[in-house]
Amino acid sequence: MKRAASVAASASFSTVAAKFGAISTGTKTADTFTDVLGGKIVVDGSAYTGTANESVYFTVKTAPTAAGSVTGLSMTFKEGVLGTTNTVTATGTGATETFTLANGVKVVVTLGASATLTAYTSGEMSEIAVVAASSAYVKGKDYTYTAQDLRAGIIRIKEDGAIKGGDTVLVSASIPEKEYINISMFDAGDIKGRFLYNADNNNGPNYVVEGWNVKCKTSGDMSGLIGKDFGTFKIELEFLDDSMNHPDFPMARCTMVGYPSDDKSTSSSYRPQY
Description:
Blueprint: E1 2-7, E2 10-15, E3 21-24, E4 32-35, E5 40-44, E6 54-62, E7 74-79, E8 85-89, E9 96-100, E10 106-110, E11 126-131, E12 134-136, E13 143-144, H1 147-151, E14 156-157, E15 169-170, E16 191-198, E17 206-223, E18 232-239, E19 252-258
Antiparallel strand pairs: 1-12, 1-15, 2-11, 3-4, 4-5, 5-10, 6-7, 6-11, 7-8, 9-10, 13-14, 16-17, 17-18, 17-19
């Protein structure tokens, strides 16, 4: 499965404590953080070199020594949960400093004339969510299927994956050349035929029931389609008049043919006493 159009890598602020400021959108969604002291941090993930999404954790270790200048600013960055924490220090003295991480993500700090950044205390940390560039979706992460699903052409979209409602996806599949048996269901209308019931009881008399002109249709729900046994469904029968061909038994004939022990005499027609 592929995307209808490739998606470029991106980065956005996902978690920043409210006491430090607020997240907003600049040129990209949630790419700007404005500190309560006026300084701004913009994250740019377009040059991200990773092939998987990851989180970047950062802190403002040391605030600038004066408003309007990045002099004295140092920040810590950790790429991924298991990454190593690195401390970087601003090299310029102006109002702007760009930190480029090893994975290509850029963090740009801009300070207005009277703006600065709030220093984090021990244990405080903010998070940047980085999304890798992608042209294809990943099985097991964005979608999944089983061998049984494939037989019916089913692909299951994972709720926590990258495919969202309304997205256009491209699906390629290889279908082996094969003759398949197709059965048209539930469109036959009335089915007419003959009916024969041949009892084989363990106790009591056995009967043979014959119907000359019978209409049948399915009734109720089909059940047991998944299981080791055969599926089942009910059939309704309607016995129709066939006086022309069977004047003595116009609808049907029920004949008692014997007992399991076969120790009683029978006749060829229905006997009410049984």
